[in-house]
Every structure is written in C-alpha cells, then in structure tokens.
Design goal:
2 domains; mainly alpha; Arc Repressor Mutant, subunit A
Length: 218
C-alpha cells in the first residue's frame, strides 16, 4: 500500500503533487499513444517517460484503459471547447458561426498530429475507447443540432431528423480528416477546412428534405 505524507513539500501540497503526477502520465500517454499507437502503451513505459514511480500510476488510473480513455476525453473536450468558443464569439450569420466552429475544431485536433491520431484513429483499437469516442461524437452532434436548429428556425420535435443529420456530419467529417491525416487527400489544411465546412453547411441545408423523408415513414 502506497502512503504519502500530507502537507507541503517543495512548495506543493499532497493534492498538487498527485495532480502533477497525473498530468505527467497523461502527457506521456499522449506522446506514446499519439506516435506509436495504443498497442505501445504500457504501465512501465508511460511511467518511465513521465518519470513517475510505477506505484503511483494506480493512484490516478485503475488501468491503462482508464488512462487512454481520460486522454481521449481530454482531447475531444479541448477540440469541442474551441469550436464552441469560436461559435459564441463569431459575429455574422448562423452559417458564419458554423464555419467558424468547424475551422476551430479541425485546427484544435490537427495542430498536434498526436491529438488527431488519438481522437480519430487509435480509438478503433479498443472497445472501451470506441465507447468514449462515440460519446465525444455525440457531444459534437449536440452542438451541430443546436446550431442547425437556429440556422433553419426548426421547431422542437424534429429530433429524429436532426440526430440523423448530426451523426452523418460528424461521422463523415471524422473519416475525411482521417484520410487527410493518412495522406490520402493531398490538400492543404485550409482547403480541408473549407471542404468540410461546405459539407456541413450543405447537409444542414438539406435538413428540410430529410425531415420530409423521415416523416413519410411514420
């Protein structure tokens, strides 16, 4: 059983030191998982890179799945926060806001290829991470749903169409970014952003037709 004395040591409290170790473990996992892949992530390796004794790993994470999952959540939340901030601070039409949000999300994910790799590719190697990835995509879908409702002045109650639209947008955009990161789409990032933004706006414009199609099945 690991014990640590309470109080302040070298200017940091016990809780602060614990959080510092957790941060170093997350940063080490970002580097290992983002460059070598999920299969390269080990307790020993992440502890060595973080310069944290192995006995302290388990004070922050019950296992490697929890570490990788918390890292994925952090990457996704940071990207979504960037998108939400861009939408909130952009003046102009609702379409302008959507385009700003798309650009901010893509920049947040792709400025550091390791983060993009974790958010878009590495989750496929773990059932636990896939559940976290789907949860993150649902949060993005919720933002898209909110903006689409305002852009088209859609009344409450069209949830099926909005949900379908949001999932199509998030899934398609994520796959295109993954292809781009892998070198399958040889364009500069501003072009990628414009293509995805056009796709998002175009899909939103198609929402009335999607509503009609889904309603015809009732």
């Amino acid at each position: 059983m690991t014990r640590e004395f309470s109080g302040t040591y070298r200017g940091a409290t016990t809780d602060e030191r614990r959080e510092q170790r957790r941060r170093r473990l997350l940063d080490a996992a970002l580097d290992i998982m983002g460059t070598q892949g999920l299969s390269a992530l080990t307790v020993r390796g992440v502890c060595e890179q973080a310069r944290v004794g192995p006995r302290f790993f388990y004070e922050s994470f019950p296992d490697l799945d929890a570490l990788a999952g918390d890292l994925l959540d952090e990457v996704q939340e940071a990207a979504l926060d960037s998108a939400s901030a861009a939408i909130a601070t952009t003046e102009g039409s609702q379409e302008d806001k959507i385009r700003a949000g798309v650009a901010a999300l893509i920049v947040a994910l792709t400025d550091d290829p390791r983060r993009a790799n974790i958010a878009l590719a590495q989750a496929h190697g773990s059932e636990a991470l896939m559940r976290r990835r789907f949860a993150g995509m649902r949060r993005v879908a919720e933002v898209i749903t909110k903006e689409a409702r305002q852009l088209l002045d859609i009344p409450e109650g069209e949830d099926a169409a909005l949900t379908a639209l949001a999932q199509l947008i998030t899934g398609g955009s994520a796959e295109l970014m993954l292809v781009w990161l892998d070198g399958g789409l040889k364009v500069e990032r501003p072009v990628l952003i414009e293509v995805i933004a056009d796709y998002v706006v175009g899909m939103v414009d198609r929402l009335p037709a999607l509503v009609e199609k889904l309603e015809s099945q009732d």
